[in-house]
Amino acid sequence: MYRFLLSRRWLITLLIALLLIPTTIRLGFWQLHRHEARVDRNELITQALTDRPVPFDTLSATPGFTVPKDLTWRAVTATGQYDPAHEFVVRKRTDSSGDKIGYFVITPLALADGKGTVLVNRGWVPSGDSATAYPPVPTAPAGEVALTGRLRADETAAGSGIRDRAGLPDRQFNLISTEQQAKETGATLLGGYLELTDTAPAPGDQPQLLPEPNHSDIGPHMAYAIQWWLFTAMIPVGLWVIVRREARDRAKEAAEAEVPPVAVPA
Q1: Cα distance between residue 36 and residue 191, in whole Å
Q2: Regarding predicted confidence, which is higher, 163 or 56?
Q3: Which of 66-70, 130-134, 145-149 reaches the highest mean pLDDT?
Q4: Peptide bond just before 201 cis, omega within 30 deg
Q5: Rounded to a whole number, what is the distance in angstroms from the first to the last CA of the chain?
Q6: Which conformational region is residue 11 in: left (phi greater than 0), alpha (psi within -120 to 50 degrees), or beta?
Q7: 10 Å Cβ neighbour count for 264?
Q8: Sign of the CA dihedral 220, 224, 225, 230?
Q9: How far, in Å, CA of 148 to CA of 150, rounded?
Q10: Checking DSSP bridges between strand 117-126 and strand 189-200, what pairing results, if any?
Q11: What pLDDT shows up at residue 213?
């Protein structure tokens, strides 16, 4: 009854089905692992943001320090004086809504304890009159300030996907990089940077502060995993339905072929 399964067409169909089953299972686990990574990331960020702030230079105390993932977004503090002479902006960055393109304003802060200088992302400003003109930027507060913010790792072209091209206008860059700025200014810059959330005393005017990272959305990966596994279960079921239908059709055709023709009276 099922000898037709040995035909070339059906052997190819069965082979494809057998190959699809482990493939869809693996795709489901791939999405599951992405879901687990997203959940772990959210938990890590939540913990980092709610931990008691610690001085920046207790986590990053040396130039060239690479901020590890488990310290990224850690609440940190820093006290010192801004160095507006070496302030710069980072191009093609969006505001808190994600709709407007402008610049991040990065101002070095010389630490009061003399242990070095920290790059501070003071926030976002809109673009100026042209892409080559330095945008209007609120003046950094003078005198000693106490900052609170989030510890961030230096940006790299590989990690951010942003091409770091040369030939940009004066004091405009594509990345926030302490290594790059140390070469530009000769300052002793501690690795990583501070993403500002609060300043004391509060300035009269400042760039738009950056919002917290999203650490509640788990994304659609678990739903995708379930969809792949449902598709895995449907492959043998669907294949069996097709085989049974083919078998019934062939049996019906065979039965009809065996019926003798009815003689028509002359």
Answers
A1: 29
A2: 56
A3: 145-149
A4: yes
A5: 40
A6: alpha
A7: 5
A8: positive
A9: 7
A10: parallel
A11: 82
CA distance 182 to 199: 25
Q: Which residue has the tokens 């130039």?
A: 63
Q: Which structure tokens are listed for 33?
A: 């692992």
Q: Helix, strand, coil proportions of the chain in percent (round to 5)?
A: 40, 25, 40
Beta bridge mates, 196: 149
Closest CA to 196 of 51, 56, 44, 50: 56
- Give the per-residue pLDDT at 154: 96
Helix (H, G, I), strand (E, B) or coil at 195: strand
**What residues does 3 pair with on adjacent strands?**
none
Global pTM reads 0.75
Tokens of 67: 């901020």
Q: How confident is the model at residue 13 (pLDDT cuts 50, 70, 90)?
A: confident
